[in-house]
Amino acid sequence: MPTAASADPLPEPDTRAEAIHVEDLHKSFGSLEVLKGVSLKAKKGDVVAIIGGSGSGKSTMLRCINFLETPSSGRIVIDGEEVKVNADGSPADRRQIERIRTRLAMVFQQFNLWTHRTLLENIIEVPVYVLKVPRAEAIAQAKVLLDRVGLGDKIETFPAFLSGGQQQRGAIARALAVDPNVMLFDEPTSALDPELVGEVLTVIRDLAAEGRTMLLVTHEMKFAREVANHVVYLFEGRIEEQGPPAEVFGNPQSQRLKQFLSSVS
User: Fold this and answer.
1) CA angle, residues 172, 211, 206, in degrees to nearest 5
2) Selection from 54, 60, 55, 82 nearest residue 72 by Cα
3) Where would you tag: which of 154, 158, 250, 252 has the fewest CB atoms within 10 A of its CB?
4) Number of other residues whose CB lies within 10 A of the CB of residue 26
């Protein structure tokens, strides 16, 4: 029997602050209840992959966290600040929402770049006109970010002349321009041709390696297993199973998750 001195030391407690805390989140569109009491936590530096079939509520959950959709009920805390809501779930303080949104950056499926603006103009828009960053400073930072995502030579290019992968990398650079505390990715590769997926995933992988806090809705199971430190499986608006990637992918407990993984493998 090992002595107390030779016993394995206890693991260090995780003292990281919470970046996202979602509690009992509900969302209905008329009589259709899409989210049925979802609770989720992410600490600073976590990469949480959110997986599930079409219609499971993945994208709706991300949009509610950013208040692009109004939750029907529930509690959302961003960086320790609880979002104030009315009885119907709508924001009680619009200025608070605007302030909190400067800490969150969302990357969408369809890129959402302004087609009438160059890539550089897309990236400096929010820093200059919303955050009031001096224009010269915003331009300098945008050039750094575009170099970082491999688009340093596309500064004056309009989105129509970029591939889908280049547009999505530009959208990621735009999201980074506000220096967000949390990045929300809503299936960032789903609109891309297969040969362009890898270039976007490489950028996201690099961000994860930097310690960026991310919630990532994805159908790229191999990528989720490699990059995330926590995986959430949604089924019909509820969290069916969650845990470390090795457990969720390697030893799924629920029959629904087993069926889902077999269908996407």
Assistant:
1) 50
2) 60
3) 250
4) 17
